[in-house]
Amino acid sequence: MPIKKRGTGLTAVADAWQLADIDVTASYPIRPYTAVMAEVAKRIANGQMKCEMVHGEGEHAQFSIAHGASMAGARATTGSSGVGVTYAFEVYSPIAGGRCPIQALVGDRTLDPPGDFGSEHTDCLTLRDNGWIYGWAENAQESLDNSLMYFRIGEDPDIMLPQIVAMDGYFVTHIAQEYEMPDQEQVDKFLPPFRPQFRLDVNNPVIMGPQIEPEMGPPLEWDRNVVMDRVKAKIAAVTEEFGKVFGRKYAPFVEEYMTEDADMVFLLQGAHAITCRSAIKYLREAGYKVGMCRLRWFRPFPDMALKQILPKFKVVGVIDTNTSYGASGGGGVLLVETRAAVSELANKPMIQGFTSGLGGETITHEEFFKMAEMMRETLRAGRIIQDSTWVNFNDYVEGASEVKAAQQEVAQTKE
Amino acid sequence: MSKVYKQVPFAAIVPSPTVANEGMVTGNWRYLRPVVDKAECTQCKTCWVFCPDACVNMSADEGVSFNLKYCKGCGVCSNVCPVGAISRVPELDFEE
Amino acid sequence: MTLAVAIDAKMQEVTVWTRGVTLAKEARDTATLLAKAGKQEGKYVQSFDNYVDLPDRIGVPVKSYARLSPEPIETYYEYENYHPDVVVLAEETLVKGNDILKGAKPGCVVVINTARKPETLIKWISPKAELPKVKALACIDANVLGAGVMLTFDGTEGAGDDTKIGAGVGAAIAGAVAKVTGFVKLESLVDIAENKTAVRQGWENVSIMPLG
After folding, report:
1. In chain A, where are the structural domains located?
2. Among candidate residues A120, A182, A97, A150, the one with its CA nearest the CA of residue A300
3. Taking the complete model, does pTM exceed 0.90, yes or no?
4. Minimal-distance CA residue of chain C relative to B2
5. Does domain B29-93 bear CATH number 3.40.50.150?
6. Best of C56, C92, C96, C98 to disrupt the B interface by mutation (most B CBs within 10 Å)?
7. Among residues of chain A, what percentage have pLDDT more than 90?
8. Are B43 and B1 in contact (CB under 8 A)?
9. Which of A73, A85, A192, C57 is the most buried (most CB within 10 A)?
């Protein structure tokens, strides 16, 4: 029987790892990732989990340990946050290129400066070009479910790619909520044991990650490119099967909320979707025909799904909880990717960007209201008024004036 | 109400505190206050050496005194005092 | 532009102040017990620790929160209770040098774990301007009830807490808060707390001084 539990995204993922019977986990503490290693250590000590826990001397070592374990045929996990994620940067491409399907948990944390504990997706988005597959969970239940689905997709013999279960630090990782821990039998049915075709074995020696000839590079990379396309089909199939086995149905790529008759939609990912739904309820009462599209995957980017969904709307407000300084449009990564996904469609909507929730700030109801108002201005004008708006900094609607003073104060530079 | 942010200087470069850091006042961590018995105190400076937060002041006229704005009340001074001159008194027994 | 909507208008917020490490578990238990008891009575609830405080420093003032509402909580992912209905101090000295009434709702209640008389503590409560909002000051000497204090890092930083909930002074303080505020019933607390005697003793021994 599945167990109703009260816990956080971190305990939920620890539950998933316990159910998946992982062989090796590599740890190194950093907020907000820390508790998952505390939780796993506790379960090993209590005899609930049988797993080798190896403590790295830093995140670079941590990911390397998981890499090595995976090469030896272990189901290996690790994880980090913020600057820990970026400290391990060198090893992401070798892990993905070596087709080692380890799983990492990333509880987002703002990169320095200012050394903020709060969530910002930038840490995880910086490694978007390295061949890992990942997406964001909005609550504890989804992080548990994602973890199981990711193992299944990543370890598939046709795929063999590392995955990141990403979630907003503090919001999902630290706030206790209700979730359901599935039954071991269900999981065994859904997730077969990890049996890679190649592994490090003294009786049958192989070399993994050798220095290859330059002419072999591009074909290898073509292969990594092709597999990303295969992942999309696999995601659709696995999400469907997950619903059948566990009874929880997820949209494979993009969750739509109140979009049937919507003129405008917020497009976002992660924890802020919770407040967004609540804000939409009030906005609907006030006559705004607004909905929400929540991305369940970031890599591979759900461009095919967006090509189908977005032309239904007139205005799309992409909310970026990340920074990509100097990016096209002046917003964040999601704005660039979303615009690129539909750029060649004749009936594409107007797409504007909002940067909000940086440094772990909550995106408040009022900020959602303000964004909706700006989207309505765009709708009325029939054109993009401002490519990218940093909420509370360069809002272009009435009512934003009271923050102008604060904004000017903030923008002071060295004199 | 819109969010009001704090002013940030260029690249968040701020003057370094040289004596006391107003951004991190730690006196409210304390619930037992160190009190020195001046008659017992030999002014050996052991507490001055050991205080982890440099909160023991020594002066020729006044002898030992404590910087209560930052003293966390950890009790190290009281523990290391060779003549037992420093006692720890509940903070609420003092008006100030 | 802003919509004139009252979000979480009926939500009751309890902020429990305590000391890092030494008394953190007990304060978290107080918040957890109140939330769990509320849930048992059919309310929507939430309890969490402050994320921005420095909880691994011994003696540092830290906070735990509980929230109870007859309606689903709409600001579920929040950092703190911005408008507490109840301010609880798990250790008496916190009354000195901390702005415990910051953002408090009119008619709020302050509950302090102390052997001292309520009237001797009022002078320290700050900010002073908020004092007229306080309806009552309640004192409970939970430390002498013999429940003890549990020291553990279990349950911190988003991990699960496998230790007993409400075994020590935190249970007595929860009992006192329940009596003063009426947010939850005594039976609900007794039902879920590990130390049922402590809850009852907290309920019985709290002394309440009405203000204003």
Report:
1. 3-246, 254-410
2. A150
3. yes
4. C2
5. no
6. C96
7. 90
8. no
9. A85
